[in-house]
Every structure is written in structure tokens, then in C-alpha cells.
Design brief:
Blueprint lengths: L3 E7 L10 H11 L2 E7 L3 E3 L2 E3 L12 E8 L2 H15 L13 H14 L4
Antiparallel strand pairs: 1-5, 2-5, 3-4
Helix pairs in contact: 1-2, 2-3
């Protein structure tokens, strides 16, 4: 595991546009970091409405897109996180960084606060 790891959790309607692995690959290559996308979909469509039962579910099981960014260098990590926030904005919930390394969360949260995160 790299020294800086951030799991950026975006729930439906949070990002400014659809999160795409191709965009993350470009950011990762540009800043020398690793970036991966995991899509978790647990919503169902019934009675003409999109629904999801979240009671008693772990946060990792709820519908979301999770961008994982890893780097060994804080400067590169910081630049990559900033590029992701510029494209999609920062996660908005208190759980938006759940599972990140302490240093990764510290940096990702600080950048969100410094920039307003796009909200």
C-alpha cells in the first residue's frame, strides 16, 4: 500500500459529471499516481421510483462511485486530488473519505476545505 491513499466516495448526484476510468487514467498518468474506479449499484426500480434500502447496510454496500487514489509522494497525490476535484468536485458527506489512510484523508480533506470542493 502506498503512503497516501484516498477513497473518494461519491453518491448519486454528487459528481459534476459521470466519473469515467479513462479520465482517472489520464489524471493518474499525468501526476504519477494510481487511480481506480469502483462502481457499487444497489438501487432497484419499482413502482415507478428508484429506491435503495440502506438501513443496516455497511457504507461500502450503498450505491456509490469510489475513486481510489494512491501515491508515495504527497506533492503528486495533492495535485491528482486537486485535478479530480476540479473535474468532479470533492465528496460531500462526512463519510466521503471512509477507508482512506490517515495521511490520504488529511490531504484530501484539506484540499476540499481549501478549494470549497466545488460545492
Amino acid at each position: 500500500m502506498e503512503a497516501y491513499t484516498a477513497h473518494l466516495r461519491y453518491y448519486p448526484g454528487d459528481p459534476l459529471e459521470e466519473i469515467r476510468q479513462e479520465d482517472l487514467d489520464s489524471i493518474a498518468e499525468g501526476y504519477g499516481v494510481k487511480a481506480a474506479l469502483e462502481r457499487i449499484e444497489n438501487r432497484t426500480f419499482s413502482d415507478g421510483m428508484m429506491r435503495e434500502e440502506t438501513l443496516d447496510k455497511a457504507i461500502e454496500e450503498m450505491t456509490q462511485d469510489v475513486i481510489t487514489v494512491e501515491a508515495g509522494d504527497e506533492a503528486a497525490f495533492r495535485k491528482a486530488i486537486l485535478a479530480i476535484y476540479r473535474k468532479y468536485r470533492s465528496p460531500r458527506t462526512p463519510y466521503g473519505f471512509w477507508g482512506s489512510s490517515p495521511d490520504g484523508e488529511r490531504v484530501a480533506r484539506a484540499i476540499a476545505e481549501e478549494t470549497g470542493g466545488g460545492w
